[in-house]
Design goal:
This protein is mainly alpha-helical. 61% of the residues lie in helices and 5% in strands. It is built from 19 helices and 4 strands. The radius of gyration is 26 Å and the shape is globular.
Length: 476
Amino acid sequence: MSDKIELQRWKDVPEVIKLSEEMYKLGLKYQQYVSSGKNDDKPLARKTWQQLSDKYWDLLYEIVDAQTESFPASLTFDDQERLFIDFGFLSDTLTPRNKNFDAARALGSKAVPGIFQYGSFSDFIAECWTAITNQSPTFPVVGPSISERLSGMTAQLKELQETRNAAFRTILSRDKNITGPELDSLCENLCDNLIAATKVTLRTKEFREAKDEYKQELSQARFRYAEAERVLGIQISIAQKDEMDPLGLPEAEEFEALHNSTRVLARKIVYTLQEEEKLARRNKRIATECAQFSQKMMRTELRNMITKKKEYMAVPAKVARCEQSLLCPMDSEPMLYEAASKLMERYGNLDMDMFTVARIRMYGLPRVIFVPGQGWGTYDWGDHTILLPMFPNTSTEKSLAYAAGTFRWDSDEDRILKNTYENIKDNKGKSILEMAKSFYKDYFLWITKEREGYRILPKDTHNAFIQMFAPRKTEE
């Protein structure tokens, strides 16, 4: 990487050149103050770094303005621009990278297909532009599209079902009373009717608003699945009581976990199917609001949408009480999209009821946006997005758990969680903000430790979480 800030695509744009030079001079001045070793230069170093950090937004706006000048159908960002926008990297001199920050590896990492739609900050900007200009949505660079997510999860579900069926056949091989055709029919009903049965169980819009004939078809599919599941339970119970060769408890629990994983994945697929419609509705609303705008007004609207996100992008650092600069820090390496998305999906599996809250039923699943800077994850209520800083403070686990916990707390409009949590003895007399901070901390311990079988929380808090997150009827 060059010592200077070089954005090749915009090397002939005066505004970008001027700002890049200003930032380069500030960066050199900062490095001089840091390396001088003089105590008097320390406050000057902090002040200069803050000035450099503030110009992140100025340069971002200039890059966006330069690209939208020609009013393209979609926005694209090259590797240099992505390193700046998504990681806050300017140059090796101005923003020295941690030794473990492999730029090629970071840029090449991809989020896994799952229940969440993952995107980088540059993906978010590109998405805003297509909504404003009423163009077809662009696919996120760092994560799969909705269709790719559905395809990936469907393939994963098929693989899980085949594994479950093979395990079930092995368990039932000891029972001579079940014929091959009966077993085939049972496995077929469990596989073919799962998605339809899940739609009915969740009372999706598709089911509630279906015409009588289709609604009856879905209901019958649910009945066939429920009946097959009932027979499955009976057969497992019989196998456990087999006098000659009983099925052990560990094997039975392992099979139940495997079967349950198919139900969980089916719920994720159904939630994602619903998200597709709601995302289209959101984009149509934005396009309608901007339909009468001139090109200049549309470009201004893009700036406005970025500025609204700017306010929340300062929250992760504030919550973690660390440096609020969005520029690349030298003391930590960035998360990789693949590893972070796998962990986020795991937390979703451990708290599936988060996807049944009223806010999701209204606005769909929250998108997950990886943003530059340090801190712990948070939830942007205004835009219904989960924000994950690329450089987590303390640990990736804590950052992601705080993000999920913030979403849980902020989306608790029915006060199912709040009413229980505020009655814990240790929480008496706390302000709303103190209560929220306490909940994020406890939720982190609950989802990373307690859900893994470790008792960490105090007894009263542990019992409250058991009550708050007890299984509830899910409906849309």
